[in-house]
Give the backbone structure.
Amino acid sequence: MMIAQEYLIAKQKTLINNQLSQKLNSGKYKLNEFAVIAHNISFWVMSFQDLLRINLSQVTDKEYYQLVRQHLMEDVGHEKWFLDDLELMNLEQPNLQVLYSKPHADVRDATFSLMSEVFRATYDYERIIIILTLESAGHVFFESVANFVDKHNYNHKFKYFSNHHLGIEKKHELFEDKIQLYLNNIQLNHEEMNNISNMIDRMYKAFELMFDGLAIAMS
């Protein structure tokens, strides 16, 4: 299963060059323009906890379950950081009419696509790869966001959009190291490995859709 980790690294490198990261790292945009994407990502942030919860509920192996549960518990409450950051940017929490409006469509579509993978997964190792894929894409987003916020001297105020959150995410690397030990003992045939690669491709396609939509909103 080491090949799955290598594939994730390769996919992550492609996402680093996306338009959203380029805009955040360009130095051309101000906080009020960033606030638009912060607001538009609401649907994903608030759905993320459900994705993790449902994924955990379908894990059958006891050892896997404990590791996945630990990961979920480390992410509990991050949506509250997000809502606090919106308030700091003088943004109202989006209501249902806003969440289901056209400007939020790309994030909704990406969220539904990512959520669908939880229900498509048949084996525990697939559920683990779902988490690792979420983490790998998340690192790209939070690296760019934390750098942007730091350049504008707001890092000390924000929690979700900051180095504070990025540091928490990087602590998940310990989880990733532990889970990799389990995955290394799993032998997959060619068809099963193709299924994993296809799942990762679908998830990264969803993140590309999400990031492209956010980049357009930031224009």
About this structure: The mean pLDDT is 89. The chain is about 80% helix and 0% strand. The CA atoms of residues 5 and 204 lie 14 Å apart. Residues 2-218 form a domain with the Heme Oxygenase; Chain A fold (CATH 1.20.910.10).
